[in-house]
Design goal:
This is Sigma-70 family RNA polymerase sigma factor. It is built from eleven helices and no strands. It is mostly helical.
């Protein structure tokens, strides 16, 4: 992968990488550091993957985030701190608050599906679990989030919709989930429950929100420096 393709690939995926790492670390400064290291490692290994291979990128990001988290004795478990900065995307902050009491793995799987939009088999590769386990986690987490949005709601009402039933069973496809997002974005549907509408609108917003502008600008500068540094090393290596 040449420089042009690499930059296009990374810039088109940078927001998703950022929010995935943020869901793991819950800290903006640490997230930016890990995303920068992820990009640097991907740049060094760019010949080993294609410009569509997001699994490789997220596996690297996950490895580096876990190393970052394990380096702090005060962090009781991966990805759970209360350092949600004021300039963080409020939609992401809401997602973090809804998943605060879940296990790190549950929140991670939900993030990879709802924000990053990875397929089941890709998620299973990233987190190292079987597809059935991924589906089971999604089923549990989706029902928990729905219940937290609507404390007095009933879980029986989604059974009237075949696709919605598959969604809460953790077995819906990406295409079906996109259909549900469009369905619940229509505010004039009287038969839509408020809990389901709020949940899907949350994920719709999360998937379209860019990272904070200051983070984007800093990453751009660091990418340029990484590539410039690499070019210098290659140039001087010729004359050794």
């Amino acid at each position: 992968m040449d420089k042009s393709h690499f930059n296009t690939f990374i810039f088109s995926s940078a927001d998703k990488i950022y929010y995935y790492v943020y869901c793991l670390l819950r800290n903006q400064e640490e997230t930016l550091e890990v995303v920068s290291l992820t990009i640097e490692e991907c740049w060094k290994e760019r010949k080993k993957f294609s410009h569509t291979d997001m699994i490789y990128v997220f596996k690297i990001a996950r490895k580096l985030a876990r190393l970052k988290a394990s380096g702090f004795e005060k962090r009781m478990s991966l990805g759970y701190t209360n350092d949600l900065l004021a300039d963080t995307n409020p939609v992401l902050t809401h997602f973090c608050s809804l998943t605060q009491d879940l296990s790190p793995l549950q929140a991670e799987v939900m993030c990879l599906r709802s924000m990053v939009r990875l397929r089941m088999d890709d998620i299973s590769v990233v987190v190292g679990l079987g597809i059935n386990n991924v589906q089971s986690i999604l089923s549990v987490v989706r029902k928990v989030l729905r219940a937290r949005i609507d404390l007095n709601g009933t879980m029986a009402d989604f059974k009237n919709n075949e696709v919605l039933f598959k969604y809460y069973s953790g077995k819906s496809t990406l295409k079906e989930e996109e259909q549900l997002r469009l369905y619940f974005s229509r505010m004039d549907l009287s038969d839509v429950t408020d809990a389901d509408r709020e949940l899907f609108q949350l994920f719709l917003k999360m998937g379209n929100e860019p990272m904070p502008s200051n983070c984007s600008e800093q990453l751009l500068l660091e990418i340029k420096e990484i590539q410039k540094r690499n070019w210098r090393s290659s140039f001087f290596g010729i004359f050794k």
